[in-house]
Amino acid sequence: MRSLINILDLSVDEINELVATAEDIIENPAKYAEVCHGKKLATLFFEPSTRTRLSFEAAMIELGGSVIGFSEASSSSAAKGESVADTAKVISCYADIIAMRHPKEGAPYVASLNASVPVINAGDGGHNHPTQTLADLLTIKRETGRFDSLTVGLCGDLKFGRTVHSLIEAMSRYANVKFVLISPEELKLPSYVKRDVLKKNNIPYVQTTSLEDAMPELDILYMTRVQRERFFNEEDYLRLKDSYILDTKKLENAKDSLVVMHPLPRVNEISVSVDDDPRACYFKQVLYGKYMRMALIMKLLKEAGTI
């Protein structure tokens, strides 16, 4: 049974196919309005979420399907000690496809091994968030017209940021992409990501603590929040949380064509004054995420032979 746990589960051709489908949905929404009629998506969210959960639900509803599920672990049988494997087997009896978010890395993978329906990883700990990456890729394609020959700045929490790790894996497969890694020392990109993705594929990258110095060369600026829920020490969080705040002054030296992205939620790492800048694309990113999830749900259900 085909599931999506890691963005690398999809080939470049499959990503391009999903992008093309999403763009067709944008142009011809009525064509897709009943594709999933009679099908059910189960959203199993063991961790808080607004955008991802509601985006999945909106995607399924706009495809003519319906949604069941829960939005916190305390309202599921996990509170009684049920294993992820058993939950997956149970939910497979009720739904045609599952979207799971879990604080433990690898939990959606365990679910996929035990479910009899496709499982989509909607975020697992600090590990992977492949559908956010699909949203990011559609944003990049729609706003720049390409995936290759781009300088991508990643700013903020590069250590725990699962969206950053997934985006690096995805963009590393395109030609002539360079990364600028902007973070405090304590939140640098993990060495295993540098080793297994960047160095292994000879992808050029630089590390810096200065957003201002990096700004003029960037085609994409991907801001992230410092995630309180990933810290064991409140003092460390408070010390680092305001490391980078993007405001209109910092954008003065940026390209006119810069695309500013953020997986959201933001806390204060992008000033609201930036929202009116034409380069701000983070709310478009949210909308693009819904279209990519629609394309993905259709792809997995077609491959499962249920639509």
Q: Radius of gyration in whole Å, from Cα?
A: 19 Å
Succession of helices and strands: HEHEHEHEHEHEHEHEHEH
Q: In order across it, which strands form the biggest sheet?
A: 7-6-5-8-9
Structural category is alpha/beta
Q: What do the pLDDT scores average to?
A: 93
Number of DSSP helices? Answer: 10
Counted beta strands:
9
- Ranges where pLDDT stays below 50 over 5 or more residues in a row are none
| Silhouette | globular
Strand content: 5-15%
Q: Helicity level, as a percent range? A: 25-40%
User: How would a textbook summarize the main sheet?
Assistant: 5 strands, parallel
For the terminal residues, how far apart are their CA atoms? 14 Å
Helix/strand layout:
Layout: H1 12-27, E1 40-45, H2 51-62, E2 66-70, H3 84-91, E3 97-102, H4 107-114, E4 119-124, H5 130-144, E5 151-155, H6 162-171, E6 178-182, H7 191-199, E7 205-208, H8 211-214, E8 220-223, H9 234-240, E9 259-261, H10 282-303
Parallel strand pairs: 1-2, 1-3, 3-4, 5-6, 5-8, 6-7, 8-9
Descriptive report:
- This protein has 307 residues and is α/β, with parallel strands linked by helices.
- The radius of gyration is 19 Å and the shape is globular.
- 36% of the residues lie in helices and 14% in strands.
- Strands 7-6-5-8-9 form a 5-stranded parallel β-sheet. It has a 4-stranded parallel β-sheet with strand order 2-1-3-4, sandwiched between helices.
- The chain contains 10 helices and 9 strands.
- Helix 1 packs across helix 10, helix 2 (51-62) packs across helix 10 and helix 5 (130-144) crosses helix 10.
- The longest helix is centred in the C-terminal third of the chain and has 22 residues, at 282-303.
